[in-house]
Amino acid sequence: MAVRACGLIIYRRLQPAPSSNSIEYLLLQTSYGTHHWTPPKGHVDPGEDDLQTAFRETQEEAGLQASQLTLIEGYKKELHYPVRGKPKTVVYWLAEMKDCNTEIKLSEEHQAFQWLKLEDACKFAEYEDMQATLKEVHQFLCSRE
Known about the structure:
The protein is an alpha+beta fold. The chain contains three helices and seven strands, in the order ββββαβββαα. Strands 1, 2, 3, 4, 5, 6 and 7 form a seven-stranded mixed sheet that branches. It is globular.
């Protein structure tokens, strides 16, 4: 059976005027392994539903409460890839920071964070499926304006 993880792709808008250039995405750098960059995510605990996991992991890894985020309706993405030879499924939702100046508080699982425009976020996110997901999210957000 596939390992299941869930998370939130979090973005903020730097100015009130809608513009694709004002959107930045939050990526966290792991403090283990290859120190890769990803949105906050983690394994589903017994008795939890996927969205509860996404919010819990975001709180644990970035210090963000559900009340500080707005879940964006209409976007949900499942990624499937092998990790150490075993299948893994990661489900992402999209959430906007209510206040773009809210402080990020990292857990021990991560050593750094960055707010990045799409192009830079894709450079930091080495995996092709994550790059494609960020581009898809960006298109989704731009199509809503």
